[in-house]
Automatic annotation (TrEMBL):
Database matches in PANTHER family: METHYLTRANSFERASE, N6-ADENOSINE-METHYLTRANSFERASE TMT1A
Name under which the protein is recorded: ArsR family transcriptional regulator
Source domain of life: Bacteria
SUPFAM superfamilies with a match to the protein in the record: S-adenosyl-L-methionine-dependent methyltransferases, Winged helix' DNA-binding domain
Signal sequence range: none
Organismal lineage: Bacteria, Pseudomonadati, Pseudomonadota, Alphaproteobacteria, Caulobacterales
PROSITE patterns reported in the protein's UniProt record: HTH_ARSR_2
Length: 323
């Protein structure tokens, strides 16, 4: 999108300050909360918030509240974003200031990942019980089956497979299925479950949702069930999941609608308190899929958690890439 000279000056002014440039560089890695930015920058919350306000007013960053936390991310698809990318691209890779910030960010992300891995390892055996704390799993699973109708995918890939529930629910209708998870403890239980379900053509692998190592367009159905809200960069996970979808295939995301159960961060390692339709549909669209809402399943009491099912479809005439 082309900018007027006045807009360009406003954007350059907003970005033309050391802390604000550092913030833009940090947000180019992933969305971050204000508190995380304060920790990395070593500055007080009022100061960081003032910088963020200026960046938001210039349209360079977007603010999104998530429960009691407030996150920021770089705005996408604007002329301002083009200028930011250009400016960041001019800075040498080994720049000492930005490198120190990136190292700090990696340390924080590492702490988060360790806490989450420890949580999943601790809870692997109890996971199916914990899953049912939220809403009726039977209802969710029957909504998933309804949304899929008669579809019989050649290859089903389940990302963040956990104890293998999606594989046992859907593996029977797929030609082959593959589950990836970072937690060996979860994979061990999933192996037992898929064995009990008699799913011979089902493979379980240790793998990362952000870098699956699978070829483009390999899958007819990819499921991401109750995984996104744990992740530091859910948009990147959606992009990687979408990359795997072949022509006519479907990415199905099952997660929570925005909610206020703050204790889930502390006690259950949730990072995001749900996702809006707008956010998920935007990510699906950015990944070249046609997004839609398959189901909205509130709790019976109307309080607590609403489960959403979203799907993104790859056009049937989409050309597979040469990769
Ligand atoms: C809440 S469990 C959901 C498991 C399963 N999809 C289900 O609904 O029962 C989240 C799973 O995501 C896995 N996970 C978290 N981060 C991951 C990552 N970066 N790559 C792959 N799996 C991940 C965890 O190990 C855990 O098994």
């Amino acid at each position: 999108m082309a900018l007027s000279s006045g807009q360009a000056v406003e954007i350059l002014r907003a970005a033309g300050e050391t802390t604000r440039l550092r913030i833009l560089a940090l947000l180019s890695h992933e969305e971050l909360s204000v508190l995380e930015l304060c920790r990395i920058l070593g500055q007080s919350q009022p100061r960081v918030s003032r910088h963020l306000k200026l960046l938001a007013e210039a349209g360079l960053v977007e603010r999104f509240p998530d429960g009691a936390w407030v996150f920021y991310r770089l705005t996408v698809g604007t002329g301002g974003r083009g200028l930011v990318d250009l400016a960041l691209g001019l800075i040498a890779d080994g720049d000492a200031v930005l490198k120190k910030d990136a190292d700090q960010l990696a340390a924080i992300a590492g702490e988060r990942a360790e806490a989450a891995a420890a949580y999943f390892a601790r809870n692997a055996a109890r996971w199916d019980e914990i899953r049912s704390l939220y809403v009726s799993e039977t209802e969710v699973e029957s909504a998933i089956l309804d949304a899929l109708g008669e579809e019989q995918p050649g290859l089903l890939v389940d990302l963040g497979a956990g104890t293998g529930r999606m594989l046992t629910l859907l593996g029977g209708r797929a030609g082959r299925s593959l589950g990836l998870d970072l937690s060996q403890q979860m994979l061990n239980i999933a192996r037992m479950h898929v064995g009990e379900a008699g799913l011979a053509a089902c493979e379980l692998r240790h793998g990362d949702i952000f870098a699956t190592g699978l070829p483009d367009g390999v899958a007819d159905l990819v499921t991401v069930h109750q995984v996104l809200h744990y992740l530091n960069d859910p948009a990147a996970a959606v992009a990687e999941a979408a990359r795997l979808i072949g022509p006519g295939g479907r990415l199905m995301i099952i997660d929570f609608a925005p909610h206020r159960l703050e204790y889930l961060r502390e006690q259950h390692q949730h990072r995001r308190l749900g996702f809006s339709d707008e956010e998920i549909l935007r990510w699906l669209d950015a990944a070249g899929l046609e997004g839609g809402i398959d189901a909205t399943l509130p709790t019976a009491s109307g309080e607590g958690l609403t489960v959403k099912i979203w799907s993104g479809r790859r056009a049937a005439d989409h050309k597979r890439s040469a990769a």
